[in-house]
Amino acid sequence: KLADRFLGLLRIEREYLQLHRDTTVQSLTLQPSLQGGVVVFEDSPLVCAVKHGRVLVVDEADKAPVEVVCILKGLAEDGEFSLSDGRTIVRRDRLPSASGSIGEDQRYLPMADGFRMIILANRPGFPFLGNDFYRECGDVFASHVVDNPDVKSEVQLLRSYGPSVPDGVIVKLLGLFSELRRMADDGLLAYPYSTRELVRLVQHFEAFPND
Asked: For residue range 15-58, what is the model confidence (pLDDT) as tens digits?
């Protein structure tokens, strides 16, 4: 939501791609769809973003195998990536001079102006148990840590999800989660409770006020 809001304010089109442990290099570039009872393979959000100069938002990058996230690193660092259908994504300044004008040679897919990547990943370690994305790719991306919001921002966020939840309940929940986070930081709890769980509780109290 934060990335979408950021891009919305900038009025920039985006493509969305969610990774998981079963993501392969092929599924990173091709997307199957059912058309008229026939499975058809189309360009993935990554290829569409490259072709049309959009921002690619990659979610859960820490869940994917290392060889998959290294593709993203190579694309950002080298500006070149070979697709399974024989085409090669390449930056315009690296197009071979013999390939003619842009778009003429079907072997190459020029990287359109405006193509960017926003990679979202959890921190390494329990309970996420994914790859250490920063260790593998942190040297080619500008990394930003998104911490839990401050109390004022969190109250405003929770109020948007539970407008009828009493202020006293929200204050108690904030105090509870503050203590849970402190215990996680001190090593007393293994799970780092986030705003996501807090929002779910407020939504529950909004739907079931008598609980």
From this structure: 999 998 888 888 888 888 888 888 888 889 999 999 999 999 99
User: At 10, which amino acid appears?
Assistant: L
* Angle at alpha carbon of residue 27, lines to 12 and 32, rounded to 5°: 90
* Strand 30-35, strand 38-43: pairing: antiparallel
Q: How many whole angstroms separate alpha carbon 81 and alpha carbon 165?
A: 51
Q: Give the number of other Cβ atoms within 10 Å of residue 37's Cβ.
A: 5
Q: How far apart are CA 181 and CA 57, in angstroms?
A: 28
Kindly report the number of other CB atoms within 10 A of residue 143's CB atom: 11
Greatest mean pLDDT among 9-13, 42-46, 125-129, 177-181 lies in 9-13
Tens of pLDDT, residues 83-93 = 877 888 888 88
Q: In what order do the strands lie in the sheet with 108-111?
A: 80-82, 88-91, 108-111
**Alpha helices per DSSP H over the chain:** 2-10, 25-29, 45-52, 66-78, 133-137, 151-161, 167-185, 195-207
* Spatial separation of the C-alpha atoms in residues 8 and 13, rounded to whole Å: 8
